[in-house]
Structures are given as structure tokens and as C-alpha cells.
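User: Is it possible to get a 3D structure for a protein together with its bound compound? The compound here is zinc ion. I've pasted both below.
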Amino acid sequence: MNAAEILKKYFGYDSFRDGQKNIIDAVLSGRDALAIMPTGAGKSVCYQVPALLFSGVTLVISPLISLMQDQVKALNEAGVHAAYINSSLTEMQISKALILAEKGVYKIIYVAPERLESAGFMKFARKGMISMVTVDEAHCISQWGQDFRPSYLKIVDFIEALPQKPVVSAFTATATREVKNDIECILKLKDPNIVITGFDRKNLYYSVEHVSGKQKDYFVADYISGHANESGIVYCATRKNVDTLYEKLFKQGVSVSKYHAGIDNEIRKKNQDDFIYDRAQVMIATNAFGMGIDKSNVRYVIHYNMPQSMENYYQEAGRAGRDGGDSKCILLFSAQDVMINKFLLEKKEFEGTDFADIELVKERDLHRLRAMEGYCKSTWCLRNYILGYFGEKTSAPCDNCGNCHREFAEDDMTDDAKWVINCIAETRGRFGQNIVIGTLLGANRARLKEAGTVSYRSYGALAHRSEKEIRLLMDKMLEEGYLLRTDGEYSVLKMGDITRLKEETARVLVRRSAEKETPSGSRKTNKRSTDALASAGFKLFEKLRQLRLAIAKEEAMPPYIIFSDKTLIDMCEKLPENKQQMLAVSGVGENKFNKYGQKFLEEIADFRDRYPHAVISVKTESAEE
Ligand code: ADP
Ligand code: ZN
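Assistant: Yes, that's possible. Here is the predicted structure of the complex:
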């Protein structure tokens, strides 16, 4: 069998995604590889497919026990013999697993990095059966990242102690240049084939809603009820927020669970499982929730508060839509969020770091917070903002985000922008935003007289504008880099790089929301992943979901491991009538067909009998409301 046949037989997919084939071909030819791909891009397939083609065992080093268990379950479901070895097993169980491994029972073994140093494991490794060593979450090897794990540094010693050099492949979703270099050097990758697919998650729809106070609660409640039966996460900044929101929704009869570090271990675990096994529809949590969660059918992630950095936001929002199905990432922004976050940053504790370092870290934190604030205030394509932040070049607006779909009134404020620059020049970068705005407005304030700005040429130059307009203009100028804002306690405005502004054709366009948004967001935000299905199709989807839930209960398995949402939707569109047609559904491999195919075929046949004239999938027809 070749790689494509393996993909079809075990995983049920017809073709490889961007980057997958490239990595697979490299490792199969014996070359090391490094893949940097965003969450949900399909990194697992890149080592699981070759693992089935190698004669020996593929060892996957992974830092998170829960992820390993999930992956092994999913592989066994797909008919691949796999096992994990970590501290959740007893010594007895470990010896047993190693004996089976020596007999060649497993094609893939997941291990925690600490395990590599144990004598029992080394004994197995020395037998020379290891064809490939895969390092998952490879950024853990770098001290530059947030997730540094010292045990990852031992991996290379382990590899060098093997009787034959295996192929080494490394995978991560996060990699700045430093992290990428660390991975290459520390793992001593030999002439690796490097594939970087970029940060864009096309199936995610980003939007920012400006709502504050109680409105946020209404928004969340509204959104949840408009998306019944969809799994979602609501992230809050503080434990208190989590508790309050949870109480409110619980009282309204919403199927919710909650998670934060203040909840007792056992209950926390149970709450998490409720969500993973679809017993609870919505998870309300702090950012303590999510590491090691592989739930693929999360259809939306709402941020009740603005996170502290774009890095955090990208990661947390990115927990939506891992199965590739359309999903929403909505951020509820209010000015108060900036205050809350500043307060949280102030309170952050530093251990054993010296003063200068602390100052540096604080400065960086504030800088990250500013970029996050910029995202919330941006009136331009949100996807491009994210990609730009991570250093990717972008061109046209995406036409698939809240801002691209919102109506804006556009105001050419180029001349006003020049006055702002003049004013900043006159202040010589000594004053904060309020003084600059007051000066431009020509306000009559004692503070301005004291500062001496009333004698500026720019004093009153923008008197015809409102304060709000000038603020919007400044936000835009900050975003463009024409202005800089220092991050200290007394932040002041300074001149940025204005070369572009000096060009004849330069324009500073400021956008303002044209329409008043309803609290539940624009109609487009309310689109569901199942909207491609007409109403009959939606009914069938619900039936198949129920069937999946029943099977999952029986098998004590998370539902999304049985079939992903995307696979169920594809069933609704293809309406398979027999084995062959069922195998053509994306995500239905041979093993899964043998286990569950018949049941799903019956459910679909039953549905057809009952609604013989049902139009299932008409993309142009509007979805049921
Ligand atoms: P990552 O590890 O990069 O976050 P996963 O390996 O978990 O991503 O894959 C994300 C989802 O995409 C899974 O549901 C997986 O089965 C699916 N997937 C992977 N490769 C393909 C493919 N070639 N075609 C369709 N779906 C795929
Ligand atoms: Zn866009």
C-alpha cells in the first residue's frame, strides 16, 4: 500500500492536505523533518501514515498524558495498533506493554519524555526496532517558548543511544524563528525537510463585538440558545467571572460546565469530561482550561473578556474547529477589559528574577496587551490582523470575518492625521493621549495651559472633529505605526515611522460602524456549521449526532473520536445507501465502517423512508432559523 491508500483505508480521507504529503514523502525517504502547522492542520496524519509504512515502530514523544490517551483511542478506533506508556500506568502495565511492543504488536507507541530515561524502556529501545522518533509539541524543547520542558532536552541523548539512527520528525503549531532554530539544533535534525504552512485557520470566523457589562451576559445566553446542540467554550478572565456566568446560565437551564484552577481536582476532572463526552454543551472556563484538550467538535469559542496577548487569543480561539468544520471565534470587548488586564499584569508574580528582568518582562507584557487591544479596536480585516501579528504577509481582506462583513462608513482623515503628527512633533513626545487630543480640539483646560500646548500651531486645528473621531483616528495611526505609545505607567505618544504618510498617495482611512449591531451580532455571526444543510438535513444531522452519542456512551469514548462533526455533515450531504457509498464519506475508514457503518446506514435509510421527498443539501437555500 502507498501513503494515499493508507490515508483512505485507516482514516477515511481522500486526499492529503497542504503540507502533509511533503512531510510524509520526506520521512519515508529516510530524511528528518520539521513541520510547523497550525492547530487542526492535520499534523498527526503526517507521522501516523508513515508509521504504518515503516517496518518497525514509531515512537511519539508527547508531553500531555490526556492527549496521548486520546490519540491512542482514536488510532485503535481506526484499526491501528497503538499504545501509550506514561505515569498513568502501573509498573505492571508498563512491563506488559513493553513485552507486547517487543513482539511487534504496536506500530505506534506514545511516550512521555521522562520515560526515555527509564532502564526498562531503554532495554526495549536498544532492540533496534524503532524506525522513527516523532517529537510532538516540539516547541517544548525551547526555552524561548512558554511551554519549555527540561525533559525534552534529553530526547537527543536517547536518540543517539539507539543502535541505528531512526528518522526524526518534529511537529509544532507555534514557532517563532528562535523556537524553530532551537528545535533544529537541539534535536540535531540532519538536513531536515522543513514545512511551514502558515498560521491561517480558514475554517475559523473571527469577530469582535463591542459590548459591556450585562450586555455580555445577554450576548452569551443569546448565542448559546441560537446554537443549541453545538459545543462551545466561553473563556473568562477571572475565576469569579466564570462562577457568576456559570450560575446565570445554569439557572436558565443551559447545559453548562465550568473549569478553573480554584475548583477541586476531582470535580474539575469530572467537569472537563462532561464537556468532552458531550454531556455538557458549553464550557465556561478561565485559560486554565484547554491544554491537552483534543475535542474536535468545538463549534465556537467566545471570549467574555479580552485576553492578555494575541498569542493567548490565537491559541484559545484556535480550540474551535479542529475537525476543519466552520467555527466561530468571538471576542466580547469593552474598554473595561483593558483595565482588568492591566490590573492582572500588575499583580503577576515573579519568582527569583532580578529587578531588571522583571521590568523587561513587564514591558513586553504591556506591549502584547497593546497589540491585543489593537485587534479589538481594529476596523479592518481581523484575519489579516492576526496573520500580520505573527509575521505573515497578507493581501486582500479575507471576506470571512466580522469586520469584512460589517458595514462601515469610511472617512478620509489624511489631513487630520498630518495635524496629529504636527502636534506630536510640538509636544516632542512628552505628553499622553488626553493632552494631545485636548490640544487638537482646542479645549479650554487648565491642564493644557499648564503644559503650554495652548500656544501650539496645532492648538484647535481639529476643532471641527469630535473627540471620538480623533480617538478613532489615533487608533488607526497606532495600528499603522505612524504613532507609538510608550508602555510605562505614564504612557506618552511619540512619533512613529511616518515615511509612508509622506507619500503623495498616502491615505488614512478611518472606519466607523455604520449600523448599530444587535447584541447577538450580525446575522452572519449566527451562521452555523450545519447551515449548508437544508432543514431536513439538519434534522438528520441531529439524529446522527444522537446515534453517535449513544454509541459513545456504550463504548465510554468521546463522541468526536467515533466520527467528527464534519464526517456527520458529509453523511447528511452524501446520504450513503451502501457500504461503498459510506466509505466515500470523508472520515469513514474501513475499521470504523466495520464497527459503526451499518448503524449509521440504517439511521439514514430510516430517515429517507420517513421523509422521502426531503431536500437534504441545497447550499443556496437559506438555513432554518
Ligand atoms: P493538529 O494535530 O495539526 O492540530 P490533527 O492531526 O488533530 O491536527 O487533525 C485535525 C483534524 O483534521 C482531525 O479531525 C483529522 O482527522 C483531520 N484530518 C487530518 N488530515 C486530513 C485530511 N487529509 N483530510 C481530511 N481531514 C483530515
Ligand atoms: Zn476579514
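The chain has four domains: 3-196, 204-389, 408-513, 535-610. Residues 13, 16-17, 20, 37, 39-45, 296, 322-324, 564, 586 surround adenosine-5'-diphosphate (ligand 1) (CB under 6 Å).
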